[in-house]
Amino acid sequence: MVETRHRPRVEGGREEEILDATVALVAELGYDRLTMDAVATAAKASKATLYRRWQTKADLVVDAVTRAKRCPMPEDVDTGSLRGDLISMSCGDGGFKEELPMSVMAGLLTALHRDADLQKAVQERFLAPRFALVNEVYARAVRRGEIAPGVDVELLATTLPAVIIHHAFILGVEPTDELILRVIDNVILPAARGSQAS
């Protein structure tokens, strides 16, 4: 049986300050250029404090992007419609318009392709809770009859973030309410109704 090693917490509000500093540096520098020295300097903490709590840079970064207050989760608000839920989730707190979480994802993208441990940790601790929230939005839409039989709901659920991320990171187009609504109204809802071109 593998023994779980419990890492000591940093006292008081210092841990939150360190996590927030880490998130800001990932957004500014990217994962590859981030160092424990830089985090220690930005958070006015010692490297020893960081290493007592986080064994590696990956440990610290994953903890920061999943727990820092500056990277909030979108709220699960049941508005009564798929369109309303998607707008609430995408345009509200923690949505695609939040500059910092989007910048953090940009800062992690290159490293995710090379670092299997980082990729696994980000998928399990950062992306999985968000995927679960999105999946529940679409499950409610199925129960309400808003999604036609035979529609690939799993693929549909990934379409909005895929289009927004493509615009943001490939085309350099900032996510706006207008862009999000265009994708929802012209892509997601017609596909949900099964009215896409055959």
UniProtKB/TrEMBL annotation:
GO terms for molecular function: DNA-binding transcription factor activity; transcription cis-regulatory region binding. The keyword DNA-binding applies. Residues 12-72 form the HTH tetR-type domain. The keyword Transcription applies. Residues 35-54 bind DNA. PANTHER family: HTH-TYPE TRANSCRIPTIONAL REGULATOR RUTR (PTHR30055), TETR-FAMILY TRANSCRIPTIONAL REGULATOR (PTHR30055:SF148). This is TetR family transcriptional regulator. It comes from Kribbella antiqua.
